[in-house]
Design brief:
Shape: elongated
Distance between the termini: 44 Å
Largest sheet: 5 strands, mixed
Helix content: 55-70%
Strand content: 5-15%
Strand order of the largest sheet: 2-4-5-7-6
Order of helices and strands: HHHHHEHEEHEEHHEE
Structural class: alpha+beta
């Protein structure tokens, strides 16, 4: 029964840990203030006990939790240290010098905890996406054959029903929808079982120009202007077909996110040993929740979307040992940056 309510369980656990941290800090502080000033060794032990709640807070809540707890410990301990003055072991100066160590421990443990938590989440996400991809591939294989029969039947009906405009229109809709499902099935198979990339030296200017030309008609229909800025020279080492697919997906997403009269830019540059490609739009942007799931397969905010575009983009980038960055704010557009290594590097899938 506990499984359907994981968020409630996590909330209870967090509340318990917070209560333990607060209780630990208050207990150590009370021990300081209630213990006789003459029992100096006890105060040295109590001071070191502050590290326990600081460490627990940093491990459980990251660097922010550690810093907050260390700040509270310093504020509570400081009056005691100043009040006892030179009576403290090592003198007041030595005890005050140790206070920055509270912050240092909080930062180090918090950074390590945040990094380890992020790595765990990435591993869970990769396992989840791999399982989804395998399931989708299996379903796609089973759907393809009956879909071909449905499409062929719809085409045959459309041919024989030209005289009946209403029935001909229905048959045409059936054919078009079958084609859309076929594209989705093809995308599923490509995502789940992509072909091995064929790497070669590509002229960057030609790649960008071809990508923009591929979406010109669609952009014109949507009344969106697509610009290359600047028309870059240089070369990119990669798979021509996959790079074109990557740029096509990014440009189509940017156009679809833009309103009539909007602009989309495709920019390139060379920075610190990387070829940088940026697709920038002035569209609606994404909420933080949408941004977090942007590359998840089947996640889409469009009613006619498949949710595979950015997932395939991320897969292609991984094959080229590149990096993907997405910056987006609701109402202020989106900037997607793709970083490819300037020199050839063995593919991660190779």
């Amino acid at each position: 029964m506990a499984q359907p309510y994981p968020s409630l369980h996590r909330g209870n656990t967090s509340s318990t840990i917070i209560a333990a941290i607060v209780g630990g800090v208050l207990l150590v502080t009370l021990l300081h203030y209630l213990t006789s000033a003459n029992l100096l060794p006890y105060h040295a032990v109590y001071r070191n006990l502050y590290y326990l709640p600081i460490t627990v807070a940093a491990v459980r809540f990251g660097i922010r939790g550690g810093l907050l707890t260390s700040a509270v410990c310093i504020l509570l301990y400081l009056p005691h240290a100043v009040g006892m003055g030179e009576m403290l072991p090592g003198g007041m100066f030595e005890n005050l010098i140790e206070l920055p160590l509270f912050v240092f421990v909080a930062v180090v443990v918090g950074v390590l905890a945040d990094r380890e938590r992020k790595q765990r989440e990435q591993l869970r996400r990769m396992d989840r996406l791999a399982a989804v991809g395998q399931l989708a591939a299996g379903i796609a294989h089973e759907v393809r054959n009956p879909l071909a029969v449905v499409r062929a039947t719809a085409q045959l009906l459309a041919t024989h029903l030209r005289e009946r405009q209403d029935l001909h229109r229905y048959a045409t809709v059936l054919t078009d929808e079958s084609d859309r499902i076929e594209r989705l099935v093809g995308g599923l198979l490509e995502y789940a079982k992509p072909r091995q990339p064929v790497f070669e030296s590509l002229a960057l200017a030609d790649i960008l120009t071809t990508a923009v030309q591929s979406v010109e008609a669609y952009a014109l229909e949507q009344q969106v202007i697509v610009q290359i800025e600047p028309a870059s020279a240089g070369t990119l080492f990669g798979d021509a077909q996959k790079i074109q697919q990557l740029l096509l997906n990014l440009l189509l997403n940017a156009i679809q996110a833009s309103s009539s009269g909007g602009r989309v830019w495709l920019k390139s540059s060379r920075e610190e040993g990387h070829i940088m490609l940026r697709v920038i739009d002035e569209g609606r942007g994404m909420e933080p929740e949408e941004l977090e799931r942007a590359c998840d397969p089947f996640f889409t905010t469009r009613t006619d979307g498949t949710g595979l575009g950015l997932a395939m983009v991320a897969a292609i980038i991984a094959e080229h040992v590149g990096k993907l960055q997405i910056a987006s704010t609701r109402g202020h557009g989106t900037t997607i940056t793709v970083m490819f290594p300037e020199r050839p590097i063995t593919s991660r899938r190779g």
